[in-house]
């Protein structure tokens, strides 16, 4: 009887299936799968953003199916998630400026006009944040029919941004022609980085 009870308690304590599997980047843990918009997404790639020799944040991309090219990520249908975990205290306004600048630098001409509204709203969210502390989770989900929902520590912030062009520009911060970090681009596409960092 005791053995049966112990077995039941252990079964309840263990994660269901493989949902609780995690991987690590820069000391931050990421689940290998998540649910967004009622659909299961898999971790496409994961890496650390460096500024000089300092770790700034870890970032992971979640998609329905793995993709190893920029077009494969950007043009894939269905929900998506970009998830960042800050590795140091940052000025939220500076972080917002870096993201909006990255979007402007990497937006493609045919989509540029439709990114302006989203980029403005995105920047405003960071302007309103008092501080971005180490350990903060910042995510941006794309949910078809709803738009891009930003969240901070898994709580929605602001109204969804409707334009898919905004979300495409967001993905290109890391995957565009002028990415934030070439090594990180390779990692987010599920490839080995080209060079090593100390």
Automatic annotation (TrEMBL):
InterPro entries in the record? Chalcone_isomerase (IPR016087), Chalcone_isomerase_3-sand (IPR016088), Chalcone_isomerase_sf (IPR036298)
For the Chalcone isomerase domain, which residue ranges apply? 24-190
What does UniProt give as the signal peptide span?
1-20
- Transmembrane segment boundaries: none
MF GO annotations: intramolecular lyase activity
Keywords (alphabetical) are: Signal
- Protein name, as recorded: Chalcone isomerase domain-containing protein
What organism does the UniProt record list as the source? Answer: Inhella inkyongensis
- What does UniProt list as this organism's lineage? Bacteria, Pseudomonadati, Pseudomonadota, Betaproteobacteria, Burkholderiales
């Amino acid at each position: 009887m005791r053995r049966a009870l112990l077995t039941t308690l252990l079964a309840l304590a263990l994660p269901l299936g493989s949902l609780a599997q995690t991987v690590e980047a820069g000391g931050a843990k990421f689940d290998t799968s998540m649910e967004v918009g009622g659909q299961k997404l898999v971790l496409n790639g994961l890496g650390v953003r460096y500024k000089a020799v300092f770790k700034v944040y870890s970032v992971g991309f979640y998609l329905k199916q793995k993709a190893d090219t920029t077009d494969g990520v950007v043009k894939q249908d269905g929900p998506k998630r970009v998830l960042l975990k800050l590795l140091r205290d940052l000025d939220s306004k500076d972080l917002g400026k870096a993201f909006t600048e990255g979007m402007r630098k990497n937006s493609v001409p045919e989509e540029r006009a439709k990114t302006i509204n989203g980029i403005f709203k995105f920047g405003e969210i960071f302007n309103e944040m008092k501080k971005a502390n180490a350990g903060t989770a910042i995510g941006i989900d794309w949910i078809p029919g709803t738009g891009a929902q930003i969240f901070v520590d898994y709580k929605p912030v602001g109204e969804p941004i409707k334009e898919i062009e905004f979300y495409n520009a967001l993905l290109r911060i890391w995957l565009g022609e002028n990415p934030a970090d070439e090594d990180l681009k390779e990692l987010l596409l599920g490839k080995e980085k080209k060079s090593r960092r100390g």
